[in-house]
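hey m, so remember when u said the tokens were messed up on ur end? i reran from scratch. heres the input so u can diff it against urs
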Amino acid sequence: MQLDGRIEPARMVRGLDVEEEIRTPINGKASPFRGIFRKLIFLFRARFCPHAVRMEALAAEEIRRVVQLALAEDVGDGDITTLATVAPNATAKAVMIAREPLVVAGLAVAEAVFSELSPAIQIGRTAKEGDHVTTGQSLLHISGPAQAMLTGERVALNFIQRLSGVATLTRQYVDAVKDTRAQILDTRKTTPGLRRLEKYAVTCGGGHNHRAGLFDRVLIKDNHLAALQHNSPNPIAAAVRRAREKYPLQKIEVEADTLEQVEQAVAAGADIILLDNMNLVQLRVAVQQARGRAKTEASGGVNLANVRQIAETGVDCISVGALTHSARASDIALDFEL
């Protein structure tokens, strides 16, 4: 929704309100990508999973940047079909509707597509970010210059279908672990260039964000340990020591494939242990090993059929790459009124 040239802030779902988005005017000057990205991340600490975060609502400037790239890709030198067939002064009305049950995410991005093409377009919301809507429910009412509406239709739908798909799948995982201590986390397995949007969609579905990138958490993985295989007393201890010396204020997470590595990581003072591809028995034992000394995160081979069982082992968090790399686009349409 447009409010004096600004995009109305979204609110996080499940009662976890966040601060308003950074309200950068649509025609404001762009900041460097890295600066905006880091500025937008804040730590909303979860009760059981303190290394999980929630990201702020999307800022107008970062939305505008990704929308401009998408429009440049799709429109190029011009929408030749629309320019040839629709008069410049023609107007239209349309309704964006859900064609299946889904969790809404990306309304502000879809709105920004149309606003970028024409400031004369009027948009009204009939749903909120994080809403679970039913088949046939409207999301947006749009009116204004027909050319801009036709040109922006596909790009707007691409964004909201993708983000709502991520939010919908996330909500399924969150519901599956309800009443356990486990939090559902995303990963860095995101579409290049769309990480901020996709991680935002995860929060709309009730999930939490893991690392935003390589810069905001130390995560020592198996390949790091392979490079330190000859270090004593063991690669994990050496890696944790070096990371603590270099970045004393950062949380340190260690990937463990075995229970022996879990014990080494805990002994080395790791804050979080990533339990990689462990079976249910191993997970229960690892949780006991780490109890009171480090948080635990289950990862690898997680799906909707087994996520409840994994959560019941007592792990603090479960990371699911599928939230962003395998989410199906939601079925959403833009129906023009005749």
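this time it looks ok to me. DSSP finds twelve helices and 16 strands in the chain. if urs says something different then somethings off w ur setup not the seq
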